[in-house]
Amino acid sequence: MPEVRMKNYMEDCVEDMLPQLMAKLDICQCERCRMDVMAYVLNKLPPKYVVTRKGHLYAKLTTIQTQFEVDIIANVTKAAEIIRANPRHNE
User: Fold this and answer.
1) Residue among 37, 51, 41 at smallest CA distance from 8
2) Helices (DSSP H) in 1-91: which residue ranges?
3) For every one of its 91 residues, what pLDDT tens digit does the chain have, with 9 covering 90 and above?
4) What is the rounded CA–CA span in Å between residue 75 and residue 91?
């Protein structure tokens, strides 16, 4: 029987959109700043758990994908303002 796992689909959505959004928002794209922005955004958005089988999504959440994108853009924009004003990449 294939291995079944739980996955927070929101993580994938944020990770997929993050590079393009950070570039547009002109924020440092070093690993530390990227992870700080991602952590901020994921802490603001509700998780969307799905069951996966062998690393593939068992159930796609396409019906609410557009709302995910709007929520992600808004939260990345807010996170970019905060991280830009308080970068931690030199710690």
Assistant:
1) 51
2) 9-24, 31-44, 65-85
3) 667 888 888 898 899 999 999 999 989 999 999 999 999 999 999 998 888 775 555 445 555 677 888 999 999 999 999 999 988 888 6
4) 24
